[in-house]
Amino acid sequence: MAVQEILNDLNIQYIEVKLGYVNFPKSLTELETLKFKDKLEELGFELLNDKRMKLIEQIKNEIIKIVHHHEKAEQIGNLTQHLPNVIGHSYSSLSKLFSEIEGTTIEKYVILQKIEKAKELIFYAELSISEIAYQLNYSSSQHFSRQFKSITGLTPSEFSKKKKIGRNPISEV
Predict the structure, then answer these.
(1) Where are the domains of the chain?
(2) Distance from C-alpha of 123 to C-alpha of 68, rounded to nearest angstrom
(3) Per-residue b/e over 19-54, b at no fewer than 16 CB within 10 Å?
(4) Contact criterion met (CB below 8 Å) for 110 and 103
């Protein structure tokens, strides 16, 4: 909504605005691009016009959407097929680019997102550890617990008892 407001204020036409993406009917002029970039930066956003950075943002946004907002656990374990279908590049090229730019693998990024989602689910105490493991597509609650501890230093039960431990914003994972 903030990006739409900026575009409307600057009288820049757009087709659609999605998380991390704006579709324009025509290329922006250099002046429009500079004004748009400045307004975005005032709100703490960044204009990504490098194609490689756009792909990285698409990958991250799709992973966040699947892990944090999707109810089908099998999608989490099916990224090697899902990402190429959505983004339009082979998984191996996406994986290589992601590792090169981010310094970590897509798989490790997914694990970090799953752990952040698990922290949220544990914090609200609506699901058991087994249900959380299932929802996040872990093969077992033991595997989930081991991975949770390796990332956070605490077991899910210990984390649950220390609810004051902060969670990381999704964008900082």
Answers:
(1) 2-42, 53-173
(2) 14
(3) ebebeeeeebeeebeebbeebbeeeeeeeeeeeeee
(4) no
The answer to whether residues 7 and 43 touch, using CB atoms and an 8 Å cutoff, is no
Q: Are 144 and 155 in contact (CB under 8 A)?
A: no
Beta bridge partners of 23: 16
Tell me what pLDDT residue 150 has.
95
- Domain 53-173: CATH superfamily is Homeodomain-like (1.10.10.60)
Question: Longest C-alpha distance within the chain, in Å?
Answer: 56
Take residue 108 and report the two structure tokens written for it.
Answer: 């490790």
Contacts of 79 (CB under 8 A, 6+ apart): 63, 66, 91, 106, 110
Give the model's confidence band at 44: pLDDT under 50 very low, under 70 low, under 90 confident, else very high.
confident
- 21 pLDDT more than 80: no
> Which two tokens mark 41?
């930066």
pLDDT at 74: 61
pLDDT in tens, 56-87: 989 998 899 888 887 665 666 678 888 999 88
Q: Quote the DSSP letter at residue 153.
A: S
pTM of the model: 0.67
For the record, the structure tokens of 82 come out as 């899902």
